[in-house]
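Q: What does the assembled structure look like for these inputs?
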Amino acid sequence: MIIGLDVGGTHTDAVLLSKQGLERQIKVPTDTSNLFETVLTGFNHLLEDIPIGKIKRVVISTTLTTNAIVQKELNTVGTIVSSGPGIDPEWYRTDENYHAVEGSIDHRGREREPLNHKQILAIAKSMKEKDITTLGVIGKFSVRNPAHELEIRDLLKDQFDTIFLGHHVSGNLNFPRRIATVHLNAAVYEMHRDFFHAVKNSLEQKGLQIPIQILKADGGTMNLESSMSFPGQTILSGPAASVMGSIAYAPGDMDAMVLDIGGTTTDIAILVDKVPLLEPLGIRRGKYKSLIRSLKTHSRGIGGDSHVRVDGNTLKIGPERLGPAMAFGGPAPTPTDALVFLKKMNSGDQQLAQKGMENIAQALGNTPEAAARAIFKQTCTMILDQARDLVHRINSKPVYTVHEFLAGYAIEPQKILLLGGPASYFAQEIETLSGISTEVVPASAVANAIGAALARTTCEITLLADTEQKKAMAPEEDFTAPISHKFTEEDAVETTHELLLKKALKSGADTEDMAVEIIEYQQFNIVRNFSPRGKIFKVKMQVKPGLIKAYEAVCHHCTINPDIEKGI
Amino acid sequence: MLKAAHKTGLVFFPAFDWAIDPTHPEREERLLYTQDQVTEEGIFDIEGILELKPDLINNQDIQRVHFCLPDEESITTESHLISAGGAVAIAQAVMEKRVKRGFALVRPPGHHAMRISHGGRGFCHINMEAIMVEYIRRHYDVKRVAIIDTDCHHGDGTNDIYWHDPDTLFISIHQDGRTLYPGSGFTGELGGPNALGSNLNIPLPPGTATQGYLYVLENTILPAIEAFKPDIIVNSAGQDNHYTDPLTNMKFCAQGYADLTRLLKPDIAVLEGGYAIEGALPYVNLGIIMALAGLDYSRVVEPNYNPEKLQQAPHVTEKIEKTVEIINAHWNNRHHLRESAGSPGDIQERHREIYYDTDNILERQQEKIRICRECGGTFQIESTAMPGSRVLAVHIPQYACHSCREKGYEMYDAAPKKKYDKVILQDKPQDRYVIKS
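A:
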């Protein structure tokens, strides 16, 4: 049996799955001031009377990191960056313990300016005086040559408890994002470590000896050991959990949209042949941009509890949420009130909902019934517009080769999967408006926990081989190897594949769940003065997000439990 | 938080799978290191910088500019259509005010492609800037355009296309034609009889450094633009004036390019040549992008930059100052030059030979233009290419007067079909391109 537990902002969902299906599902309120207690309560309910030895897998998704950012409870850490020519690194200052130092590596990984040890030691000394124990070190182009980052680490390793290096977080180029990502990893590290050690210890006390998996923003998992190097990857794993929970119901060989309709927001994701689309570089939320691998999810301020009002003669819905629906004691009308008033939804106070609709009807100059219908239709239209907007944006992403341009795969969803509390009430209207076959994901209230439970371990690797410089490297894994001028495309792909499998196993993957694909391949002749000097190969490969084989069929035995639905 | 002062659009189309041939300088790798630098700097994450997707242009877009022979398909590849489409995508964004300025980092380049194109010249087959300019003239309310070509090679293709157009100010600064391909672009090349002075060709001596470029900019180019009052300014942004470029002999640098861009304030920049792909392009392109966006570019400096070595010799400075004097005299005299170029209604003839180095073609042209004070003047070109076709091409300009429109049809109708492989009419006012059958 396996366990999936998703700590959300307001609720924590947990499921126990066997190969027969959903054995147990629970929903408890999240205590944001004590997430450890919340997680423990979840496990206690779930494991009651269950022979502990039968549990083979545990996956946890938490908002720990997200909360820490929102509540500004990040640890004070030191940051050392070396940039060389380009944009002034001062723009990327994280806090007062951020220092730009001498030293420069160029786009092909050649040293252009050496480090200045005296300068670095002086900075370290100033940090020590502030009792800083965790350090982030980031160099521009360190993914082309990590020598400077390694040199700084070796210089300072005795002075700091933990040092995070830029070239480990991703093979992608983007210096500002590398800085932000390393800083996040460093700043949440202690909290992440303490939390999961506590969880691990209490599970061990219950007799649970299996390794814990942690859900990442890309919809894949990593084991506890790997998470200690990249704790930032747990950020926004919640939306990823829901998307993973819908995958089993997505059609193969087709594009699908996943709409997770919540109270405040609707999260939108795209599946292509049952595989969720990823952000090209990493998570971005508003001004925050990182290299953290993530599913492409758009969160938009439209949901069951969105604030409904009339502005002039126009009906406005969202993006704010003022509180629950009036039918559930809230202050202002919401789409949920429209559902209650129209008797599409059987819970809630009918009279309070009516009061809300009357308010709107008065302002619009029509009947409460007409107002409710207008709100209902407009909510569905807005959700669909946002979904179409995401598809449009993905389709207008630039490409860099003639082949890609002409091949130009365009996303064309032929299926809509709905999740979240109000999903079932909207399904029919969304299908009518969009003309796309629409289905509510079974057990949609705990689909997030099911998604976490079934998510396979994912990872990515980037290989760069340069036959002129006679070396191949995969910075994320600190891999470098000499190569000859005869190095070929097959060699490049094979080397990357080997490194990827090794990394996946190290992160806790099961050998039967290695769904590997090449996500980027480029090859260039190096030409100088009309003669070829060598070749550059760039290969990026991933274990793609998906469900573990052994349990994938389980989803089709997961039906809606009416008792659970009521709680939403 | 880093934020662009001017909202700037970028089209990046490095055509990573296209080259003229495997060891040609115009190769797949050319923009690789630029892309690496721009990506590593996180340029596309900066607020106010937008990456736009190029569109594919079609034959009609090409036919507004060129007479392609034997036809459009034979001398272009998809890469050309996307490259020109990249310039058009930027222009659309600028015209529709989605961005204030834009830069199309595209390849292949186009500024050596002339109005009649039998094939490749100087790595160019069709002219990206001209296709873009004629596209916006057709679709938006734009008449007067200034095109400033800062590639180190004379922009002879654009020079040819706008030779007779008084509504386009074309200025090319380039290394002296006696020392570099294509061997043209001297101070006396001022445009056709109806447009004298609207083409300014400014040859610079080998060894011109940043101070020389900025001197020409401030003392000739900017005053001419100010007097011309263009609706938009286009920069053919070649990057081969760089001190490390393998094909040229200049001393320009990334800081200089950024300064030039900041002062020129182009609405649209289109990448042209530049073959120091590792040592120059990453820094020059970064500098241009940041200058367009109004960001501080003071730290964009080549790793091996040494200002001592990039001093401009006194004889070079002297030569540049003299050239500027000559150009300014021509510019100030432009109205008089046109008045004395001939009587309205007369036909003037010009004969020339054009060599296509990339495709090894020799073309002979005989051109006849109607002298006109009202518009650019209708003209016909009889062109024979070896190897290639023999054609008669008639061009009625965009803002043609009544007489020139009639003259165009007269020329077209009078051309004996038997004598040529093709007789073609480019009727710009009606946006028509007709081949006699």
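The two ends of chain A are 26 Å apart (CA to CA).
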